[in-house]
Amino acid sequence: MRDPFFSPPGFLLRATEPVAKSLSLKTLPFHTHEILPAFCFYEFINRIVSPYVSARLASQTYPKLSRNTKINWNVHFVSMVQSCLINALALWVIYADKERSSMDWKERVWGYTGAGGMVQGFAAGYFAWDLRVSIEDVDVHGWGALFHAASALAVSMMGFRPFLNYYGVNLILYELSTPFLNIHWWLDKVGMTGSTLQLVNGIALLTTFGGSRLVWGTYQNYSMYKDIWKAVNNPGELPVPSWLALAYLASTTALSCLNFYWFGKMMQAVAKRFDKPNKKQGRKKK
């Protein structure tokens, strides 16, 4: 399936081809017109849209927040917009791109479609922005967020070799839980901790996180590992450099381990917000 977005302008193709060639990212020039606008779009939301909209929708909360909390609030705002957009795009491509459904293991490893590249292009633009803010405000977001942003950007860029473009689109669906995570965070900040709305959202958060990241993600990683193993052990096919396979496997495995760790933390956090005061007092007496 061809990229449904408009074709990249000639000057941008010519400008990025030398860089793409030196980095062995053959399909990158076809998607820089998606990466760069996405980066600028999320920067605009972070600096202009979020402060403007938040100050009006949460007029009793947002203006009174500390600098660090405002930075976090704006990042959650960008994350909400991004996750809704990228989930819609990924689900549409998975459904509409019929080439993907007929791919064998060789095509899943080395294959490429323009529509899949579009999804990875928009995702790479966001991850590049996420890495920028993680570096700029590492004191706010922490080193874990910086590592996550760098890993996610590296994995998305590898898809432009092309390499595992098929799985790159599938793993975008990790983001299905992100809207509920953002809502959970906002409810805490506007004084709705322990509310019925937060309970319903917490159930949705744990369900989508467990389904998209632990179940779907683990299955996709298992399938991907099998395909990489076949590629490495078939010397007659296109070779997979050892460093590339190890780098991709290390990144995706690290992210998978973090998902299981975060799920445990989320369960504790959600349960803590609905712990009865009398139960807490009872435990203290004991």
Write the layout of secondary structure elements.
Layout lengths: L9 H13 L9 H26 L9 H30 L1 H4 L3 H6 L3 H23 L1 H4 L1 H16 L6 H7 L6 H12 L6 H37 L9 H32 L3 H9 L1
Overall description:
- With 286 residues, the chain is an all-alpha fold.
- It contains 13 helices and no strands.
- α3 (67-96) packs antiparallel against α6 (114-136).
- The model is unreliable at 278-286 (pLDDT under 50).
H/E order of the elements? HHHHHHHHHHHHH
What distance lies between the first and last C-alpha atoms, to the nearest angstrom? 64 Å
Rg for CA atoms: 21 Å
> If you average the pLDDT, what whole number results?
89
> Total strand count, please?
0
The proportion of residues in beta strands is under 5%
Main sheet: strands, sense, barrel: none
Low-confidence stretches: 278-286
Global geometry: globular
Helix content class: over 70%
Structural class: mainly alpha
Q: How would you concisely characterize the structure shown here?
A:
With 286 residues, the protein is an all-alpha fold. The chain has helices at residues 10-22, 32-57, 67-96, 98-101, 105-110, 114-136, 138-141, 143-158, 165-171, 178-189, 196-232, 242-273, 277-285. It has 13 helices and no strands.
Brief descriptors of the model:
globular
